[in-house]
Design goal:
alpha/beta, 10 helices
């Protein structure tokens, strides 16, 4: 199937879809729930946060503080069942402990019709994030295999597949092999992010069990901002929940992140502040037509 004809969510009239956003809450640095809530809300979604940890800032800053919320998650989510909360999509990102993967799987069982979106936030540029243990990486790899939409970067894909990270300069055939291997492990749709070949272009490659392999690309900007991965997946899901095709959602997310990086570079201390997407939220609202 052409990805232009693949629709993962059907928006019904005035109905507002409800999304369980299972991410950490970061006080400074513009990532995780701080990105997911405004982006998905702009797409007309009811975002129900499930904090996997509380951070003073993201871990690229020195002296960050983390509070692990693993112990509260069972009671937190059981309370939803007690009041009849319904969920249309379950969107997970950064996790704090292997046990949190089991809580997410239990949430899948509670809401079997919900779209399962996994952004396996655990590493980048060949390095695992400092709070991630081998056990947590292994648990995240297991969660990735059950995703309806999986959005790893190249480092995360290597962890999930148990292979070596070989850098961000890979050819189309290698990218397709990685995507195919992730699909073979059970993910239904995969977006492999962040391929850079030194030609001024950044590429994302995508495919699904029922749709063909394709490429989406943008101009490469020569600076790195924290939170762009969270922004990408949140925009992708926003477009999907607005009723856009999988292909259109992949393209929209890449374009939005590019535009947000341009806005970010105009802010003071922008490399520390993170990606500035706020002035562009109207573009997400326009997805609703």
């Amino acid at each position: 199937m052409d990805a232009q004809n693949l629709f993962l969510y059907k928006r019904e009239g005035a109905y507002i879809p409800r999304i369980a956003a299972i991410h950490d809450l970061c006080g400074y640095g513009k990532c995780s729930l701080g990105v997911a809530i405004p982006v998905l809300s702009a797409a007309g979604c009811d975002v129900c946060p499930v904090p996997t940890g509380l951070f003073s800032s993201h871990t690229a800053f020195p002296g960050w503080y983390m509070h692990d919320t693993t112990e509260i998650l069972t009671d937190y989510l059981n309370a939803w069942k007690g009041i009849g909360v319904d969920i249309d999509a379950i969107y997970s990102g950064f996790l704090g402990a292997p046990e949190q993967v089991q809580r997410i799987k239990e949430t899948y069982e509670t809401y079997p019709r919900a779209l399962r979106v996994v952004d396996p936030v655990m590493a980048d540029h060949g390095k695992v994030y400092p709070t991630y243990t081998p056990e947590l990486c292994e648990a995240m790899a297991g969660l990735a295999s059950g995703a309806d939409i999986l959005t790893p970067n190249l480092t995360e894909a290597a962890i999930i597949l148990g292979t070596e990270w070989t850098g961000s300069d890979i050819d189309d055939d290698t990218a397709k092999g990685i995507v195919d291997a992730l699909l073979a492990k059970g993910a239904k749709q995969v977006v492999l992010k962040g391929i850079q070949r030194g030609d001024g272009i950044i590429r994302n490659f995508a495919a699904g069990q029922d749709c063909e392999f394709f490429e989406a690309k943008n101009e490469y900007l020569p600076y790195m901002l924290h939170g762009t991965g969270d922004l990408y997946c949140s925009c992708l899901l926003a477009a999907v929940m607005a009723g856009k095709s999988f292909a259109d959602a992949v393209v929209f997310a890449g374009d939005f992140v590019y535009d947000a990086m341009i806005v970010s570079a105009k802010q003071p201390d922008f490399k520390d502040r993170g990606v500035s997407f706020e002035p562009l939220l109207g573009n997400i609202a326009e997805l609703l037509g």
